[in-house]
Amino acid sequence: MNASHHGSRDPSWVALAAHRAWLDAEGGRLLRFGTAAAPAAGAGFAWLDASGTPDPAPGVHLWITARMAHVYALAHLRGRPGAGPLADRGLAALDGPLRDAEHGGWYPAIPEPGKPSDGRKTAYGHAFVLLAAASLTVAGRAGAKALLADACDVMESRFWDDRRGWVRESWDRAWQEPEAYLGANANMHAVEAFLAAADATGDGVWRDRALRIAEFFVDHVARSQWWRVPEHFSADGHIVPEYHDANRADPFRPYGTTPGHALEWARLLLNLEAALPDPPNWLAEAARWLFVVAVGAGWDADGQPGFVYTVDHDDRPVVRARMHWVIAEAICSAAALHRRTGDLVYEHWYRTWWDYCAQYVIDEHDGSWHHELDADNRPASTVWAGKPDIYHAYQATLLPQLPLAGSAAGAVRDAASGGEAA
Fold it and tell me: Is the overall model pTM greater than 0.70, yes or no?
């Protein structure tokens, strides 16, 4: 890829006031859509169907409530009236019905009011609790510091494996049985959460831990796999290439590799680089390679516009559905690499993917973004039903406007105190 392929040297979209106004308008539209998910204080954020109506069938999920609390904390930091109280609803649920008062940590879900799930406690869900608590703390919401302290303690005592430098995948409710599995996805989101925790607490140990995770999954494993990021590992860190061969379209642990996660990793590596006082050179190098390989393997891979959900170990498409979160992370990754390098090729991709979103993904009729499209870019629901949350889409409207930093909340806070405009 090189800049000559697009031939455009007009100003970067992100530098244009009109484009930033469009991003803010789209972000505001997403925030309005999400308000329907918080019908009752302290109950957590509901799963929304395709029209934006709360769907009681899936119950209240930890990851959704934490993500939405994080999003509305960011919106509050940016001065959006009404966002703070919505963030507080998420905080109240995390500090209330979703918290396991008996054994510590947080339940994965509440399938029915008053009846929390007895399912496994996951690093994925707890990473989002930590992220939300950090953003709420930076936003100055009452009770957030205590929630953050608890989230840090649980993450450190239950999930962080200091000997190996990664987070354990999951435990049973009573913290007696760890899962015999290691996932790159949970560790990737731990990097995001650890950077946010460092910004909220000022404790650099969280940045060091984020670097250790990235060193294993990216600098060691992905580098050895020609910059593909394997998703599934044994508990001791060996790749399990055929994991979920019988359930290839799993929404959280799909078979093969996921180009969207490589793009997300690329952006997070640049956040990590910006956060560290003395970052290693490989972070930016890896971000560029992950981007190149993910675009080559995932974009237009089957002859249709869009990123396929997964590819096999030879980069052949496996699940051809298009997920909204993948294009959102592609946008964020392109924006981050353009800001980091100034290379016009990333501006080209940034524009290309927003054009794709406008044509296929943004739902102007019912609101939010279609969470899944089929291989012909028509709304579908084979992997995801409805529009559960706005986390990825909202960040796609926000992160391109922010300087590279450890966390979005920290970047907004620093901009408001006299740094670069947010």
Answer: yes
